[in-house]
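Read as chain and fold; for instance:
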Amino acid sequence: MPRTPWGRRRTTDSPRPGGRRWAGRLRRGARRVLLVRVGRRRRSAAVLLPAGPDAQEGHNSRLDGSRLIVAADLDPRLLVPVSPAAALAQPAPPAAVPLLPGAHTRARRIRFLLVQLCTVGSLMLGMSAIFLSMYGEARWAAVCLVGCVSFDGLDGALARRFGVCSPFGAQMDSLADMCSFGIAAPVMVFTSIHRSAPGAVVAIACALVAVGAAIRLARFNVSPKDGRFFAGVPTTMAAAVLSLGILIGLRLPGPVAVGALAVLALAMVSSFPYAKLARIAKLPPWFWLPAVVGVFVDYRITFAVLAAAYLLSGPAVWLRRRAATASGR
């Protein structure tokens, strides 16, 4: 049997075919594919492209009509490899927001720490108010909440005074307010009045106050700030009213107390404009004369009247603005 020119045979004795021939269309299509050959000595790339009509004969031309182009003759931007992974690459994560924007000097860090200690102090007093309320010490819990109100006003004033306002401080202040004014205050009120009304009804009213405080704080964080009015009763003011009412021994009938809590919760989530303390302090002195006289007559009734007047001031200002807008049209 004659020896075949191939080193490897098939199972049959027939010689291996001389190779698979490409069809004419496949061969012409394969020539259009971009081929990059990396030379070992020149360390440069060569690209095999179909010769155009303006190609000169003998200039790197081949017998099959294509021409060899060195990488140096091409635009470098065309040699940048395109990978499918580059198109699917995820965007870079955003940079972390620093706790203290601006220069990190020792003095600014100390001031920033002092402001945060005031916020933490408010948080700790709020937790103490919860524990005291669980033991039935509603008045001592009210004292702690008054301290929370003081710290809440102090940390913001110090942050603006020292120039260390930051998003971190704003979030810390909101969380501390939720603990102190949104949770501790309703727990304190429940401990104080749960015997004067059905416990389930009082619990629902106190829960409404907590929900109203959460909505009020969340809306405050994402809403534009107004220098003159609050949108709804602020949680600090609501907690101050509840704490002072317990401290002075204000006794209201059970249904009245539950109704007042429900109204307070609705006032916190409302959009009625309530004046800030700085605006209230600018009122003329004669405006406060009846309040001063009322304190000496009956401070409990005077306090209740002032609290009710503040709650009603929001709808009154809203109606006044609406009437002014309607008349302006």
